[in-house]
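Q: Could you fold this chain for me?
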Amino acid sequence: MTDARPHLEPFEGEFARVLCVVAHPDDIEYGTAAAVHRWVAEGATVSYFLLTRGEAGIDTMHPDEAAVVREAEERESARRVGVDVVEFGGFADGAIEYGVALRCAIARAIRRERPDLVVTTTWDERFGTGMVNQADHRAVGLATLDAVADAGNRWLHTSLAEEGLEPWGGVKALAVAASSSPTHFVDVSGEHFEAAVHSLEAHAAYNDALPEDFPKPRALLQMVLGGGGQAAGVEHAALFDVIRRG
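A: Sure. Below is the predicted structure, expressed as structure tokens.
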């Protein structure tokens, strides 16, 4: 019988510093946090850069209140997988537009954190599951792809050098989560899966506001990471489209 699973390579490499760039609180927790927990356990320093505070994400809560709540929940969810540095870009939730300003903000984060691995979400119109991808996700993902190159170019975003942020061209790979065409997997079975569930559960106010029939954190991550595991031939896996550099 022919194996219908996609050909996926183990995503391996000695990544000392990892930067995750996403649009909203909880974007990382829908699967990527399991890989973060593994990378931290292996000795990497991981930091998060979120372009918004997710203030438009809770229908029953005014954005001014939601921004404070969701920022706190994101910091706690990051702590649960070993991440101490969580920065926010100050862009308006639901209104992020691709452009030079967005690329500059992300390049600033890259120069500041000096990662060798950058992680973001897909900029395709649909996620790998077939669901429509949000506008914020698409803008941030594509801008991150470009900002990785921008960060190493002295003659782009010249104000960054004036801030004391010298060019950084040391990014070895960009890992794109939720892609419809993943190329690699990270085995996140066991404690890494459990840590991811614990991390997503930290978004208590957000989770409580979701429809009653929306899957709870464990069930949702079983679908995402369990499905990844089936594709990779392990119990649980985070899947990425990996773009190598250099």
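A (continued): The mean pLDDT is 96.
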